[in-house]
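Hey, quick one: can you model this chain's 3D structure?
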Amino acid sequence: MPHQSHQSHESRPQQVTAAGAPAGCPAAAAAETAAESAAEAVPATAPATVPELFTWEFAADPYPAYAWLREHAPVHRTRLPSGVEAWLVTRYTEARQALADGRLSKNPVHHSESAHGKGKIGIPGERSANLMTHLLNIDPPDHTRLRRLVSKAFTPRRVAAFAPRVQELTDRLIDSFAGRGEADLIHEFAFPLPIYAICDLLGVPREDQDDFRDWAGMMIRHGQGPRGGVARSVKKMRGYLAELIHRKRETLGATAEPDEDLISALIRASDHGEHLTENEVAAMAFILLFAGFETTVNLIGNGTYQLLRHPAQRELLQKSLAAGDMDLLGTGIEELLRYDGPVELATWRFATEELTLGGQRIAAGDPVLVVLAAADRDPARFDEPDVLDLTRRDNQHLGYGHGIHYCLGAPLARLEGQTALATLLTRLPDLRLAAEPDELRWRGGLIMRGLRSLPVEFTPERP
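Sure thing. Here's the predicted structure for all 463 residues.
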C-alpha cells in the first residue's frame, strides 16, 4: 500500500525501433524492454567503470549494475533520465540509515520548486489538484499528527476483516479466465484485484469503480499514454473524491449508524479534538489508491513471474499449500518482496542540511534516492542474496521501507499478495509462462518495478 510515488516520464522520447530498442540515446528513458531473470549472479569480472544506468537493458535486469554500485560507489551521484541529479544509496547499512535519518526530508519544498512544478519529482498533477498533504510528502510534526489520525482508521483489525472480500475478488477474477487455458495475469488479474479491493475498502460505490480502474490504468503507464494523461487522471480523481467525501460527511451527520468504509473512518478519526481536514482526507484516499494499488500489482506480477522461473521453489510452495500449511506462504511473500520487489527505489528525500552518508558529502537540498532493490541484495546483510529461497527466515528486507515512513498499508498488500498467489497456484497448478523471459517488457518509471504483461498458459478448469 502507500509507500511510493512515481517520477514522471512524460517528457521522455517514446519512439522505438522495429526491434523494440529505444531510438536515440538509451539513457533518455527508463527501461521498458524485457527481462532476463533477476536471479542471474553478478559477473565474476566487474566492469572498470560505472555501469550504464536507466537503459532498456538495465530495466530488464538492474541487479548486476546495483551490485557494482554497492561494491564500488555505494552512495553515487548520477543524472536521472529527467535531468535531475540525485544520490543513489545501494548498500543495506547506508540505505537503512538514510530511510530513518530526520535530516532527509520527504517534503519537496527542500528541493527546487521549478523541478517539482515541471513534474520531474513526485506525482504529476498532485500539486495543482491540492493533493500534496499526504504521508509521502510531509515530515514531523505534521507527519506524526497525520499518521496517528490515519492509523486510527486504517487498523490491522479492519484489514483482517477485509480478507473474505479479497478472496472473493481473487476467485471472481480467476473465474473470468480459468476456462480459457491462457491469460495475461497483469491485465486480467494483478491489476484489477488491488484496484477493486482498495475501492471497496475506501467505500467507492461499485458503479463508479471502473472509472477508478481507467484513471489508475493511465497512471500506471508511466508516460506511455497521451502527454499530460497522468495529470488529467489525477484531476478527475480529485474531483470525484471531493464529491464522495462531501456525500459521506452528509451521511455521517444524518445517521447514528456510521458507514464502515475507510473514507468514513478517516472523516471520523480524531485525536485530542483534532480531525483530518477535507484536503487531508482526499490526499490520503488518493495516495492509497495511487501508490497502494501499483505496489500490489507489482508484488503479484513479479512474485508470480519469479515462482514460474524457479520451479523447485514454486513446487515447494504448492506442496505446502496442499498440506494446509500457510507458514511457507508467509515467509515466501517476504522473500519475493526482497528478491524482486515491487518498489525499486524509495520515494524522494531531500537533505535539509549538509550531511555525510557512506563517506560522501551530501549538500543541503540534494535529492537522495534509496535503492531498495540493491539494498535487499546486499551480501553483507543476506546470505546468498541472489538466490530465491522461500524458506528464508532472517529476512529484514526494506521492501516496505523503514522508520517513520514505513508503509502504513503493508498489511493489506501482504494480504492481497498472499491471497492472490495461493489461489493461483492452487486453482491453476500447472501454470506456466507463455512467452520467453526476454520477450517480456517491463514498465518504465523510476520508482516502481513491474511487468507490463505476463502471458501464461494452464490446463483449463472444467465448469
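One thing worth noting: DSSP finds 17 helices and twelve strands in the chain.
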